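Morning. Coffee machine broken again, so started the prediction first thing and wrote up yesterday's gels while waiting. Chain of 165 residues, entered below exactly as on the submission form.
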Amino acid sequence: MADRYRPKPTLQLIREGNPSKKVIREGVVVPRAVLVEPDWSAVFQPSTSASVEAENARCREVASEEWRRIVPILEVSAGIGEVDHSTVKDLCVCVARIDQCERDLSERGLMVTAERGTVKNGAATIAGQYRSQLARYIRELGLSPSARTAITAPQPDASDDEVWD
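Came back before lunch.
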């Protein structure tokens, strides 16, 4: 279902014939940039505990793989700029944390024994919250098939010197 509070992209309004006769605003053009992969050890910090360090090392690896997978696609398809760096970084963190939760669920199961008996594994709840956030990032960055229909590839400029002219 479409988000009724999110404005439709300009090209979609034009394609539909602008049934509400709203004023069509041009989108904001962001200067293109080559995003540099963040230092994942600052996000998933090293730990003195061997088990926590193993989990954080795995998260650093998964986040790095996700970054290398999606950034080249976004640079071509969406024309991402430096302002999108934190959004893409957060998306990679979500993917890494979902991987961490799924590994915990595979090891300990959906139900765990606690002080008060058998309870739901907290990793299931955390994974659901991260998946919800990941879905938003996917929609915002145009990484799903339905979101890609609203994005047009940026046109190559004759000269990049006149970005703000």
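The first helix runs from residue 10 to 15. Going to sketch it on the whiteboard this afternoon.
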